Amino acid sequence: MIDYGNWVLAGAGALLAGGALGGIFFGGLWWTVRHGASSPTPARWFLGSLILRTAVVLLGFYVVGAAQPVRLGLCMLGFLVARAVVMRVTQSTAITKAAHSPGAPPCA
């Protein structure tokens, strides 16, 4: 007989792990854009961040998925939910800062 309690716990863990991986990936991207844009060597920031974030996420998917498509799918779902959350949080931060800073836009 299948033990559904363990399956639910493993699925919830995969969903949470995907959320954590998404938070690391997209939060790291947001942090890199904020700090890399003002750096004298932005290419190093962006390339290094891309390699590090991708390596962490791929390793995480490999560990969480463990050759089980359902857990891998739940991990990916958590990753996408984290993307939406990070976009919502960073968008409200950007709007708040833009409202308080008069003058030319930062890229002008």
Characterize the structure shown.
With 108 residues, this protein is an all-alpha fold. Helix content is 82%, strand content 0%. It has helices at residues 4-36, 42-65, 69-100. The longest helix is centred in the N-terminal third of the chain and has 33 residues, at 4-36. The protein is elongated, with a radius of gyration of 18 Å. The termini are far apart.
What is shown here, in short?
It is built from three helices and no strands.
Derived structural class:
mainly alpha
Helix content: over 70%
H-E order: HHH
User: What gross morphology would you assign?
Assistant: elongated
How far is the first residue's CA from the last residue's CA? 65 Å
Average pLDDT level: 86
Oligomer: single chain
Question: How many helical elements?
Answer: 3
Low-confidence stretches: none
Rg (CA only): 18 Å
User: How large is the share of residues in beta strands?
Assistant: under 5%
Main sheet, how many strands, which sense, barrel? none
Number of strands: 0
State the main characteristics:
108 residues; mainly alpha; 3 helices; elongated
